[in-house]
Amino acid sequence: MHQRDQEPLQISRDTGLAGAPLLLGDDYGRVRTVVTAPLADASRVALPAAGRHFGAFPFARNEPGHLYETAPAQPAAPSGAMTTTGRTLDRLPDPAQYGAAVARAAATIRRAPHALEKVVLARALDYRTDAALDPVQIALRLAADRAVTSYAFPLPQGAGAPPRWLVGATPELLLSKTGPRIASHPLAGSIRRQADPAADRAAAQQLLASRKDLTEHRVVVEYIHDLLAPHCRDLAIPASPGLEQTASMWHLGTRIEGRLRDDAMPCLDLVHLLHPTPAVAGHPLAAALETITEAEPFARDFYAGTLGWVDAQNDGAWHVTLRCAIIDGQRARLFAGAGIVGASQPDDEVAETRAKFIAMRSALGISDSL
Ligand SMILES: C=C(O[C@H]1C=CC=C(C(=O)O)[C@@H]1O)C(=O)O
User: Fold this and answer.
1) Is the CB of 118 under 6 A from ligand 1?
2) pLDDT at position 9, please?
3) Which among 170, 190, 344 is the best mutation to test ligand 1's pocket, defined by most ligand atoms within 8 Å of the CB?
4) Are 335 and 300 in contact (CB under 8 A)?
5) 219 alpha carbon to ligand 1 midpoint, in Å?
6) Is residue 74 predicted with pLDDT exceeding 90?
7) What's the confidence (pLDDT) of residue 1?
8) What Pfam families does UniProt report for this protein, alphabetically (predicted)?
9) Phi/psi zone of residue 145: left (φ > 0), alpha (ψ -120 to 50 degrees), beta?
10) How far is the CA of 17 from the centre of ligand 1 (A)?
């Protein structure tokens, strides 16, 4: 079922990043080689027999990502926050323009919900400082929140140039596979957490009862169900979502578990089947991608892509690349998005994306006044 035509594999193998650190959750290693290939071909890249191999693929399915062979290493010790003096922050687009794009998308959805039922619109923050940013230290700071999987992946730029870095802390599991058993844990529908415990509980209850958020969530769960069901001999999906929390956000989440018909189906073929889900793109996919391209004044790059690990048995765990930044020397581009349905209100979605930036902003030491 998963066999593809065996056309020649277009990959390039690079050792230019040898020795660079790579961090994913509790795994820490030093890069040996990097293989660059699109996600569609990733399961055909020959992997050495032992250990885990890490990978990161961009939002755009046809753009190449990277699979890393690493050697185990001692994790770096976390250090204190960076001290910098000159800093700037540019908003892409500014919040008012983002709100206008949300209003247009919600109106389009209300007019013709069969043509577009949901779209995820993102915005970016361009941060510049006078000191080089340390991607591993930033990921270690993010790792203080044990509800998320933090990561720092070097992204090769070619021709001996220093890498860019993909750094973040994701709360969302796209797909894990252990033998025949698979799991996915989509999140969609969010609200900012509150410092006061009673207000925090009230916010969670408000989310759980929100028809707008339940609609956003249902679209994702149905999509994943419909794609996985033909490959599964059983697939269990709870009737309603539960609450998931990170240090700064509440989310609606649904844990989906199943058993594959074909145990040998490669983990990365399942990842390719699912990515991008309506938790980051929308539904129907083609209309959502068109809306995203029109509305967002930047390339998503590796934001809203997928990253994880795979082993030689084709088991693995792949996450949705969220709550992240692309770091390049003294610059960082942060990303955050929100699911838009017909009932979405522009100001609420601006506030939601602002809340989703909190984790990365505080790991980078970007003050609220900037
Ligand atoms: C697109 C993002 O979050 C997704 C994951 C959880 C909740 C989401 C939401 O409520 O819209 C998004 O689907 C992001 O953090 O940039």
Assistant:
1) no
2) 63
3) 190
4) yes
5) 13
6) no
7) 37
8) Chorismate_bind
9) beta
10) 31
Active-site residue set: 118, 172
- pLDDT at 80 > cutoff 80: no
Query: Which residues, at least 6 apart from 134, have a Cβ–Cβ distance to it below 8 Å?
Result: 82
Give the residues across from 320 on adjacent strands.
306
C-alpha to C-alpha distance for 304 and 172, rounded to whole angstroms: 11
Nearest CA to ligand 1 atom 7: 188
pTM for the full model?
A: 0.96
Q: How many Å apart are CA 158 and CA 14, to the nearest integer? A: 9
159 pLDDT band (50/70/90 cuts)? Answer: confident
Amino acid 48: pLDDT = 72
Please give the distance, rounded to the nearest whole angstrom, from the Cα atom of residue 130 to the centre of ligand 1: 31
> Average pLDDT for residues 139-143, to the nearest whole number?
96
Q: How far apart are CA 320 and CA 173, in angstroms?
A: 6
pLDDT recorded at residue 83: 61
**pLDDT confidence of 10, banded at 50, 70, 90?**
low
CATH homologous superfamily of 12-74+88-364 equals Anthranilate synthase (3.60.120.10)
- Cβ atoms 210, 363 nearer than 8 A: no
Query: How many angstroms is it from 8 CA to the middle of ligand 1?
Result: 36
Residue 241 has pLDDT above 60, yes or no: yes
Cα(228)–Cα(264) distance, integer angstroms = 15
